[in-house]
Amino acid sequence: MIAVDETIRYTADVVVTTTDGRVLLIERGWAPYEGAWALPGGHVDRGETSREAAARELFEETGVLAAPDELEQIGVFDTPGRDPRGRYVTVAYHLTVVSGTPAQAGDDARDARWWPLNALPPLAFDHADILTAAVDHTETIH
């Protein structure tokens, strides 16, 4: 077997839900999946933990401020092919906020909107799987 080097990129995503059953999604302003809805998230920067990156990306893309320690880890998503740009490994987090929390698109997001969990648009990447894992995790601990 010949070993082939594979660049692995490290990202963080956040599932933000409200107390009345909504989830915060962003409309992507860039490829891949330009114009599609996705969870807030992005690359982990040098010197940053995935939890810190998740809090930073959440604020940059939606204006929702959360301290890193408020984010609860859901899991690691690393299925090959989950991102058409190459190998991406993401650590996903969950945050619950009160309904009515304002969100406004920023950074690379065209729009940021609260969606009812029972009426979601198609999601980019494997974000539907991440969202399902977050909801299942939340129901398990409550």
Question: In short, what is this structure?
Answer:
The protein has 142 residues and is of the alpha+beta class. 20% of the residues lie in helices and 34% in strands.
Helix and strand element order = EEEEHEEEH
* CATH topology description: Nucleoside Triphosphate Pyrophosphohydrolase
- Classified in CATH, the superfamily is Nucleoside Triphosphate Pyrophosphohydrolase
| Unreliable parts | none
CATH class: Alpha Beta
Query: How far is the N terminus from the C terminus?
Result: 48 Å
Q: Give helix % range.
A: 10-25%
The secondary structure category is alpha+beta
Whole-number mean pLDDT:
94
The major beta sheet can be summarized as: 4 strands, mixed
Summarize the structure in words.
With 142 residues, the chain is of the alpha+beta class. It has a single domain (8-141), classed as Nucleoside Triphosphate Pyrophosphohydrolase (Alpha-Beta Complex). It is 20% helix and 34% strand. The strands form 2 sheets. It has a 4-stranded mixed beta sheet, with helices on both faces. Strands 3-2-7 form a 3-stranded antiparallel beta sheet, with no helix packed on it. β2 and β3 form a beta hairpin. The longest helix is centred in the last third of the chain and has 15 residues, at 127-141. The termini are far apart. The relative contact order is 0.28.
